[in-house]
Amino acid sequence: MTNGYISRPKKEVFVSGVKIFYGSQTGTAKGFATILAEALSSLNLPVAMINLKDYDPDDRLIEEVTSKNVCAFLVATYTDGQPPESAAWFCKWLEEAANDFRFGKTYLKGMRYAVFGLGNSVYLSHFNTVGKNVDKWLWMLGAHRVMTRGEGDGNVVKSKHGSVEADFTAWKTKFISRLQALRKGERKHCGGNCKKGKCESNQRGSEVAEPGSHVQEELPHRDAEDEEPFGSTNEEESDTEDHQSSNPVIDVEDLGKIMDHVKKEKREKEQLEGETSAIRSTVKSEASERRAMITPALREALTKQGYQLIGSHSGVKLCRWTKSMLRGRGGCYKHTFYGIESHRCMETTPSLACANKCVFCWRHHTNPVGTEWRWKMDQPEMILKEAIENHQNMIKQFKGVPGVKEERFEEGMTVKHCALSLVGEPIMYPEINKFLKLLHECKISSFLVTNAQFPAEIRDLKPVTQLYVSVDASTKDSLKKIDRPLFRDFWQRFLDSLKALAAKQQRTVYRLTLVKAWNVDELQAYAELVSLGNPDFIEVKGVTYCGESSASSLTMANVPWHEEVVRFVCELVDLIPDYEVACEHEHSNCLLIAHKKFKIGREWWTWIDYSRFQELIQEYEDSGGSKTFSAKDYMAKTPHWALFGANERGFDPKDTRYQRKNKSKDISGC
Predict the structure, then answer these.
(1) pLDDT tens column, 67-96
(2) More reliable by pLDDT, 635 or 199
(3) 161-175, 361-375, 381-395, 597-611: which range is least confident on average?
(4) Which residues contact 143 (CB under 8 A, 6 or more apart)?
(5) Residue 272 CA: distances (Å) to CA of 162, 265, 277, 516, 521
(6) Which helix (H) or strand (E) holds 445?
(7) Where is this region: Disordered (predicted)?
């Protein structure tokens, strides 16, 4: 009672509305969506029907985490298990997000959903594949399944209820019943049979289970291809199934996952022992040693990660910044620092193998390792041809995707830049110089990254647009701890690589990856390494957490905040008087330190004149390598928005997504 009046507590809203998403080829799923919307009208809930063709999950799906909506997905499976055209982009985005560590297992935590798939069991191997996948991918991103997936079957002989329409009617009835329970805040009793064996639902109240409900009957079956660790329980069956169970008791069903980790570690150990013994053993005949770098198991692992594999040792993958810029959004930090057009950049490698096993490896060490080239070798002409074709095919998949700008789509079909930094050590490829020459003949700029373990190859390398060396630590002990190199003389190789870089006349870059509590306190040692290689630029980037891995002990605690990266950069610049902080890309947690020779007057010239570079490299080739050129011969002026301290924080103001409000920034420390 307040001032003599009784105030009623505000009624809690458990369900604010229903969104019905549909992906239809012949109109059946759309028709079912309409029927469901009409049936829900009696509940006095806002209902929205959404064609997945017009829906942008990149922007809008995250809204469902806090919206208190319940999302129903009605999706058909089309030819060969593929989604209908209207749902193709949504499914592709969802699959990539589910398998991308940057999204994580809690990206959609808080979102509630249910799935009804439409298929025909006549096509047994592809029956309801799309519905199963959407269900799985949403779960992998942390969304909560409110009821068992429904599967409509167009084969009347096998249909559970006699027809796909009857299957949908049964699912719809159950969905409405479940929705009514959710509106009341009810959660059904577990029954004691939940998968983890330790359900907390009994502690939340004394809700009574639906009469005749059996948890085991409700569990959706798992297909052979669905053996990934995704949950098959739901709120109706097990309200408190958690993605990150802390139960110390090992369930029998979890033994398979544990054994997978044990087997994986055993394989890695055997692989490393095999490589060590191979180095020590006498050299065998070439015919007996030359084998394909890409084994069937490696092909399966990398394909699942989104790679398009080429020949026996190369690969190409579409960068997320390429996708972003196709849609008129922000480019990568290379766009900010050097003027790369991200939607025209091809990320590839002619060698998936590497001589390090870095703790922050993005690929969780799925790629092979080695200290020398001992595999079959594909010709550079074939690698480049197939790399471009695969890249273009991946770009074509964005035709008609919501938000993709037509002019950028057309531009994206012509590769202008090549980032040789996808995975592995490209400089190991014996024909790397020929490959670079082919790139330049196609008027494609080259950005090559090496891990500083092959000094001779760096010395022999022909000119590239920009040459990177990864400087992941500044002392012998920390480099061994972070990069875990295979070479016994790794430290001398590292120093010799930096000296070799100093002799290069084209643009050179140190790339520093900061790992909190591992390598952020070695400022003076970093400054000494800078004087050794005299790079034109120094990129400093906070480490990207790649998710849990048996091969690494890194956690989110090792990821520095952007402010911490800025502080490190400012303190480092104080120790290297020939350099200043030039640019910033806040979204990538990355800053660029540039040599003062690129500051003309009071203006930075860190960008690249790509047309001029192509002219210079052509003159170099025509002269047989006698006519050299320097980094300053093809520099271009850096725009104001890319500079450190600018309000845009490194985001191109022309791009729609990353337009920022003006903010003041204290850069007095630099």
Answers:
(1) 999 999 999 998 889 999 899 999 999 998
(2) 635
(3) 361-375
(4) 64, 108, 109, 111, 112, 113
(5) 57, 11, 9, 28, 31
(6) strand 445-450
(7) 187-254, 265-284
The Cα diameter of the chain in Å comes to 98
CA angle, 43 then 49 then 54, to 5°:
160
By C-alpha distance, which of 94, 89, 95 is closest to 55?
89
Contact predicate 350/300, CB 8 Å: no
pTM of the model: 0.66
Amino acid at 475: T
At 256 the pLDDT is: 52
Measured CA distances, 84 to 25, 102, 127, 585, 642 (Å): 5, 27, 14, 38, 41
Sign of the four-CA dihedral 437, 442, 445, 447:
negative
How high is the pLDDT of residue 557?
73
Could you list the beta-strand ranges (E) of 318-442: 345-349, 417-420
Q: Is the pLDDT of residue 480 over 70?
A: yes
Q: For residue 250, give the amino acid letter.
A: I
Of 330-334, 394-398, 551-555, 632-636, the range with the lowest mean pLDDT is 551-555
Contacts 24+ apart (CB under 8 A), 330-335: 330/587, 330/651, 330/652, 330/655, 330/657, 330/658, 331/652, 331/655, 332/585, 332/588, 333/539, 333/541, 333/585, 333/587, 333/588, 333/590, 333/592, 333/650, 334/419, 334/447, 335/652
